[in-house]
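Consider the tokenized backbone below.
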């Protein structure tokens, strides 16, 4: 019973890890307009909201920072805000705006475009 409640809670809240590398970008291209809204019980007086808008994922090798990162180079320090686009090269290294990110791991990244936009919008450096 406890397992069922936990699983149901996870399904209802739509919890997903930040990194979705196994999710192809084409999987979530369905229009949100095609999802039908379900109505609630007539006795309750409330309506169940429509299905959540599907997330949009970046193509393979494209990620976004989930937190601010500082890069030190010969010309100074470059601060990269959350949501900054990061490219993974074939050798596994990560680059953002021509700078190599040597201490970045996949746990610091997401390929969820919608999450990246939210992170950028709420970043102090974006204001």
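A designed sequence for it:
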């Amino acid at each position: 019973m406890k397992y069922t409640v936990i699983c149901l809670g996870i399904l209802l809240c739509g919890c997903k890890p930040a990194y979705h590398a196994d999710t192809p970008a084409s999987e979530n291209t369905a229009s949100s307009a095609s999802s039908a809204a379900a109505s609630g019980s007539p006795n309750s007086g409330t309506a169940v909201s429509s299905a959540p808008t599907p997330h949009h994922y970046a193509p393979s090798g494209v990620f976004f920072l989930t937190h601010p990162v500082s890069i030190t180079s010969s010309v100074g320090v470059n601060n990269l805000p959350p949501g900054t686009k990061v490219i993974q090269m074939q050798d596994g290294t990560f680059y953002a705006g021509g700078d190599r990110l040597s201490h970045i791991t996949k746990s610091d990244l997401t390929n969820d475009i919608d999450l990246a936009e939210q992170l950028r919008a709420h970043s102090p450096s974006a204001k």
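The longest helix spans residues 2-13.
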